[in-house]
């Protein structure tokens, strides 16, 4: 069994163009995993971790990529560590790649641009890290850029991310004169030398920085003393603080997510990247530092009062029954490639394991360790490891088990798509190619949906944004040789009740033989607008008025009626059913009778009376433009029913944050280029659903009615 204290499973996440793939490339080089540095947008084939042609052409990361490196530092007495690294996309349209990576990682590096600071996707990544309780360090990148301001970035971290940013370094030189950092733990100047920055030189702090460094060190120690009484006492007594104690406190506070240690450098200019690798080994958790729980679904497990199974802590021990999560799938010519994180036990080549979701036993015939798109054959994967299996048919989020356990791990959070469009092959003969492509991408990406429009018989694809769908259309063309005809983008509207409704509905059908009898009584309540769930069901029936075995059928009946609302047949959200009473018949009641009764109650008693309102998706928009165009851009946002939430000018560049309905944003890429002479850029992510203004609701529903009438002709 490997020494898990020397294993790190980390992700590198950031807003688009913050330099995370460049940082990963340098880490691979300094660890000896690659022998030539390739740049993301260079003419040498693109970065190692961007293995798709489309990624290398566009200079962006589209899919997460995994690799494994070794790192040690004799100067700092860091023994050799194994680091599994996953480089994730920065564009919001591919955020599920970040989501499923963070679900299985123990720690992360949050990369921030020294000029842009905390940007829109930084906030999203921060939210995802907090959702899964992932400790992180921050790396302020691009310190060589004009306008670099690490103090401002850390202030934004504290203000916008609500995180306790504690700098472990201060820069030596600024902007184009940035040459290194002062290590505040060891109180040494750190420079990188050599053609590729491969030589680390530690020397005395320059005289002109000594006073600033002493002040910064004291601020760091005071921040750390909030989490260690012994350190606070030492500071009060003006005693010397041992380097080992400082590192111990930084580590414990990081693991407890009380602080985010901050490092800085320039990955592109090969400056102080090795310091980030040191920090990964010293401050981020190993697998045994992280508590992971699974649900015990065995027959003799006692359910809690809500009917939920007990939670069991997993051990990270090779000798225990195997428990692993399939967190990413890629369909290939020779079978599916499934990325796995092993939480306990071992995966052995040739052995069979049970898929907890399907109950099927599956043989793992080929095990591999990934390095971007290259693979290395292995015979065994151990607890704490990240590896891949070839030829296993499963879904993202599935739990695999060895003999003797019936556990399941909490699944991955998947956001609903906000945009859809119709798709068909340009040539009728290519229909099979399109079908295969859509089925493959649907399996690989939980946020990519394939739907059928019942009215038009068209195939629809749905996703997280225009770029998301554009990339898949381009991949269908390249990888399957299938040109496609794409329809106009459509907004995914929702319907939401605004009033509570009491219901009392009875279904009694008798047509010879056994009949159908169901009777449900209760109340429907609108959920709060910020509720995460679209539908909630609460069983308040007492005294066996409806037998327990019929309750799930009632819930299913109510929920199945959520697919089409009464306004425009859009999906219904924000609805809670409280089932309070009812009656049953000894002979004529059944699961089907109660399910149909609940469906009728929704259709006849609830939906017509609940004051249904139309919801539209609102996007969070971030625009960067020369400040001379600020007025025109903000005015244009207002004309799109948008709301500017902030506008900040720095060194001639203006960053505007706004909230705008998605329906107004479909040609925005061309519009922003036109308004800013091609100098403006923007990023956009889904924020929330909000009730549409009355005039917008009327327009949308009128358009919907017209579409239906035309189909009837």
Automatic annotation (TrEMBL):
Compartments where found: Cytoplasm
Domain of life: Bacteria
Keywords for the protein's UniProt record, in alphabetical order: Cytoplasm, Elongation factor, GTP-binding, Nucleotide-binding, Protein biosynthesis
Keyword DNA repair set for record: no
UniProt cross-references to SUPFAM superfamilies, sorted A to Z: EF-G C-terminal domain-like, P-loop containing nucleoside triphosphate hydrolases, Ribosomal protein S5 domain 2-like, Translation proteins
Listed Pfam families: EFG_C, EFG_III, EFG_IV, GTP_EFTU, GTP_EFTU_D2
PROSITE patterns xrefs: G_TR_2
GO cellular component: cytoplasm
Residue stretches making up the Tr-type G domain: 5-288
Binding site for GTP: 14-21, 87-91, 141-144
Stored Gene3D superfamilies: 3.30.230.10, 3.30.70.240, Elongation Factor G (Translational Gtpase), domain 3, P-loop containing nucleotide triphosphate hydrolases, Translation factors
MF terms in GO: GTP binding; GTPase activity; translation elongation factor activity
Summary of the function given for this chain in its UniProt record: Catalyzes the GTP-dependent ribosomal translocation step during translation elongation. During this step, the ribosome changes from the pre-translocational (PRE) to the post-translocational (POST) state as the newly formed A-site-bound peptidyl-tRNA and P-site-bound deacylated tRNA move to the P and E sites, respectively. Catalyzes the coordinated movement of the two tRNA molecules, the mRNA and conformational changes in the ribosome.
Family membership: Belongs to the TRAFAC class translation factor GTPase superfamily. Classic translation factor GTPase family. EF-G/EF-2 subfamily.
Protein name, entry field: Elongation factor G
Gene of this entry: fusA_1
